[in-house]
Here is the input.
Amino acid sequence: MDAVPDRKLFLGGRLKRLRRDLALTQTAMAADLGVSPSYLNHIERNQRPVSAQLLLRLADTYDVDLRTLGQSGGPASEAELTEAFADPIFQGLAVPRHEIVQLAEDQPAAADALLRLYRAFADRRSRDRAETDALGGQDGDSPADWVREFVQTRRNHFPELDALGEALSETMNADTPGETFEIRARARLQSRHGLTVRTLPAEVMVEWTRRYDPHRKRLLLSETLGASSRAFAVAYQLTLTEYDAKLTALADAAAPPDEPTRRLLKVSLANTLAAAVLMPYGAFQHTAEETGYDMARLQARFGVGFEQAAHRLTTLSRPTARGVPFFLMRVDQAGNISKRFASGAFPFSRFGGACPRWRLHSAFRTPGKIITQIIETPDGGRWFTLARTVDRQGHDAFTEGHDLAIGLGCELKHAHRLVYARGIDLAAPEVTPIGPACRLCHRHPCAERAAPPVDRPLAVDDWAKSVSPYPFAGSRD
Here is the structure.
């Protein structure tokens, strides 16, 4: 038998797993080993080390291989867990080494389950990549998915960009006071950078709503852009011109996986900075609070559109001047989700669709009007929501207008700060229960269900018909 190393061994998690594998209580194992139950309890909780004598008794009593029991790591070793957590899917979590060691040592069964799940995921991802490669496609998350996840890890809040936006806005106000933002921005582009702005017919711009010509130093805008979209396009060009190096550095620091993703992230950061110039943090947050988050007042005060103002509301996380923590979702009439942002909690599936019971989809029946609703998620959380249609930026031959809907919401406890909640009994409100995407939702019965939950088998009965097209096992538990 190998000599027991002369060092303190804390093997609580593995000893506990051995005891459970043997179907023994602490009292029974303590009696077998000739120790007190309280002493064994302290060992299992890693409050006492395992002595050499106790290791020898374990080996004699239960025929345990000491090399297996005393080795660093268990079925899920520290090295294996470290490798798993290094996967890009865990980017932004930064799990420290001591937590990985603690997981392997104290919770070996949970660590083993996590590794088993990760390996299944990795195997499926490898098969998907192989199939995609065979079809000549690309593997991994799309650039849009990667950027969306990165922005969400920052809670859609970039204080360095807010500071730049406020400073530039103040400078422009001093240079050309009393003018609209677009006039001030055009003047700065011309005087500081020799760059002119021209609006051209849609037939000339073809597919483009905005395009910069670096050779002639001209920003070309489509006539299809409304006033707020045109102002934002000019703001975007101004921030990109003045802060290109800063935006590039921020995008590079995020370590995107490839060049297309890096470029898309830089565009996203430039859009964030443009919004910070159009709607300076301090002034926007103060106006929002002062007006009860009245969207019409915010749009008029800052010369922006509904979507621009709503998006800006999801970024108000400055510690000294926090706004209501909103979430935002944008969908088209087919239910495709093209935007998800949240400065706080987010009540919907990040990878599925939105529940059809949420009136976001009903907004298409009342174009341009704000509709409110209080919803309740399966965990008991309650949310106050607004929904309204908006026009897509620019248009093509197939665009009819009002073909997008914006959903904006916050936890019900913040609703008293919103002008839209006035007259509603927030203490005893009318609540609509909803779920996440249908494939993740266990709510039953539901006439709007489009698919059964992925983790529940169908319970089809040819003798009865449910209001739900997909009854499933366990739905009456």
